[in-house]
Please model this.
Amino acid sequence: MISLTEAMTTRGHEQVVYATDAAAGLRAIIAVHSTALGPSLGGIRFWRYEREDDAVLDALRLSEAMTLKAAAAGLHQGGGKAVVLVDDPDAQRSPAFLHALGRAIHEFGGRYLAAEDVGATQRDMDLIAEVTPWVTGVDPARGGSGDPSPVTAVGVVAAMRSVLGFLDDEPTLAGRRVAVQGAGHVGAHLVERLVGAGASVVVADVNEAKARAVAAANGADVVGADTILGEECDVLAPCALGAVVDATTVEQLRCRTLCGAANNQLVDDTVEDLLVARGIVYVPDFVANAGGIINIAEEFTGYSRERALARTEAIEDTVTQVLELAREHGMPPGRAAVEMACARVESEGAGRRWEPGDPAAWTDGAPLRSVRPAG
Ligand code: NAD
Model:
């Protein structure tokens, strides 16, 4: 097993901070992977970890993934992540605890911009925003962007149009059969948009009542959560948890393309080769689900839902670039997307490191600011 310092240096992280506050009971790891393209942006994960090393490795891995996601989405942002060790991620956190976390985030001076991730709620973001402006996803009444899932769904539909156009020159959802796994925040918005675009949709959720409600509201079909992966369809959209496609489940798939919102859909990189062998085109999840990060990045120029949606629609072009690069070089799309993102960091961000007070590219030379003053 490699050491933590080895893991940090081999993945190229700029900064990893272990933030503690004994009085508040805070133990958090904040990792800034890269600020080559701009201040790092990434969610706060509240999770119960067996070992502190696991939390550090998670922060390293997730912050690196955010660098790729932001770069592929064309954002002037880097990758960062905060991992907070808690006993119960679902328990409501005290203001003192969240203020201590907010102060730790504030010390980065804008090099790390926080957002929601697993376990986090808008209430957490609102309380953190009381002590630092460097947090996104706060209440829209306070200048925040609110729930990102409707925008994420718009991006997933754009990604679907692209891959369908790539497969048969018809970039349209009309008349397509789409299977959606998960009727949660993104899944529900996605079903509505797909039906609106003329697709025939089948949806499943482990919480069957949720699937039934979403289907009834939109005129979609429902199947059991144990059979959705094997539904015959044009597009299978995983919108539940990660790691749904592995060496076993890949054999069950009866779709032409895999294109959904869930993070880390493939259990590992080798699964993509199995998808290629079965003739199923995988749209890399971090490209298809970038609407969420595009939406929160907008908060730093004064949030505009119209602009966030317009930038999210551009995911269609990004997916097309990825698929064409993959075809040109005979590589799977997942690998092509990583190469494309790394190439942008290396060309546009070569040797750069963003520091507080530096201009941020998208502010036309003005220093980075938050639209929401702290307090
Ligand atoms: P959510 O928790 O609101 O919804 C997930 C749904 O999946 C729940 O209804 C849950 O019951 C269901 N589910 C869990 N396991 C299932 C299974 N095996 N089969 C069928 N249903 C199952 O989450 P969300 O915000 O809708 O996000 C969905 C996925 O998209 C997550 O992986 C998330 O990380 C990713 N994502 C979300 C956003 C966003 O804007 N919310 C942005 C980027 C990525």
